[in-house]
Amino acid sequence: MIDVRNVHKTFLSPHAVRALVDVTVKIEQGEVVVVIGPSGSGKSTFLRCLNHLEAADSGHILIDGIDILNPKTDINKVRAEVGMVFQSFNLFPHKTVLENVTLAQVVVRKRSKAQAFEKAMMLLKKVGIGEKANGYPDQLSGGQQQRVAIARALAMDPKIMLFDEPTSALDPEMIGEVLDVMKTLAREGMTMVVVTHEMGFAREVADRVLFMDEGAIVEEGTPEHFFKNPEHERTRLFLSQIL
Amino acid sequence: MPMGTPTSDGTPKNTGYYVWVGVFFFIVIGVAYSLYYATLKIDYVWRWYRIPQYFLFKEQVEVRAQIQGTVHRITMKEDLVLVEVKEGDIKETYPVPAKALRVREGDFIYPGDVLGAYPRWRVGILMEGLWLTLKVSLIAIIFGVIIGLFGGLARISKNPAFKWLAITYIELIRGSPLLVQIFIWYFVLGTLINTILARHGLIQIPPLWFGVAALACFAGAYVAEIVRAGIQSIHRGQTEASRSLGMTSAQSMLHVILPQALRRILPPLAGQFISLIKDSSLLGIIAIRELTKATREVVTTSLQPFELWFLCALLYLFLTFTLSMFLQYLERRQLIT
User: Fold this and answer.
1) pTM of this prediction?
2) Domain housing B185
């Protein structure tokens, strides 16, 4: 489903930083992959490269067989198949909750208003915001906003969902409600790549854990392997700091 | 501290507050009175009663015969009468309001004789000037916004041709005086365009449109910068979210970024529009009789500069204040929805 081969990425401004160094990883359909690592380790950059919000400098990134680094690829078509959830929600503040979820369906998927509405209401009910559909994002709590953002991404019927620290901006009591929605998605067989600091989520839901440090994937494996007997010294150090 | 009525921010007003309110009115009235007193010292006679005629006046309209002959027949047609003057084969008919009729059937008429006279209300020169200022400003605002919108989008475009063209345009317009720009539009571009049009036998473009073009281009450069700042003030996450849903950059701009930017640019845009109304006073120099030029003309004939220039300022204030209120209304309405 996702095939990343020898990807490099260097940020030039404000100063040169090697964000990704020879990253190679393959993610199968239906797999839930959790990416963890210290801040500045390149995990967000890795995720943002997967839907080309950041352009990788070299290597290949194949999404469902399409090389998104090929300049001839219509990136918008690929992005419609890859949902993304951001740390800061990024809901559209000038649109109602319902419009947030219908907009891209109508504009990108060319669905009718009625179809988009039906789909949006179904998803909003699924994430538990059905009764707030006509409110505006700033009337919702952080956890509710993030659930709307998940519904907005799901409305496009994506094949892959990317989560970029979806609970980092939330108050502690709201983290659970967002993680619950993500767990449901995982159970339903969605292919997911999740950057998070929620080790509980990683242990419970992940099929595989990637540990990144200084732009490289240092260690990968099942949660049991990863949390119980990590091979690398850096992984052990990181785990000892956070657990 | 003495008790008082609470102000809007909840703090009680004390006596000191009312003293300073008094100081405000004292200064305003004092300045106005000193000015009036000074005019008395130089024997200026205020004649406000002569001002209304420059807005609306009664004109005596006279219907005169063009030929000589007898009044052959007078027929009623609704509230008009048709006066038929005839001599031999020559016959002419003049419509006159029934009440204004001054001739009878059988009267002998020489050319130039008055067949009927009646008063009619006419719009005065200041009213015409006010209307022209309003018209020129509104057209310039509309085109200025269109130019500014595309200018602002070009300014942030990644395409070097668009971007550099926008920068050149903005810097050129913002860096030179509007007066000079109006001269260039009228005396250089106007001459070129009208000469070329004349060579091809086409009609000439009147000065008004060169004036409007100068104002629109001038405002457009400022609006472009306002639009650019508005778009750039929208958080990057909004673009990322819309693009991650598969929207093209145009769709993202249209549905997500611009509607949000519009709210933020409304207040600075209002300031720009107000400037534009005032700047239109420069158009008098290319023979467009807007409010300032109209006032100047009335001043030279009536010799009442004090009344007229104050009035002119008040009329501009009326236009700008109305516009400002309208834009504030739009802003409030947007904040609610």
Assistant:
1) 0.81
2) 125-336
